[in-house]
Amino acid sequence: MTNISLDSAARITAAGLQAATAIDTPMNIAVVDAAGHLLHFARMADSMLGSIDLAQRKAKTAILFHIPTAVLGTLSRPDGPIYGIELSNDGLVSFGGGLPITDAQGRVIGAVGVSGGTADQDVEVAQACLAAL
Question: How many structural domains comprise the chain?
Answer without folding.
Answer: 1
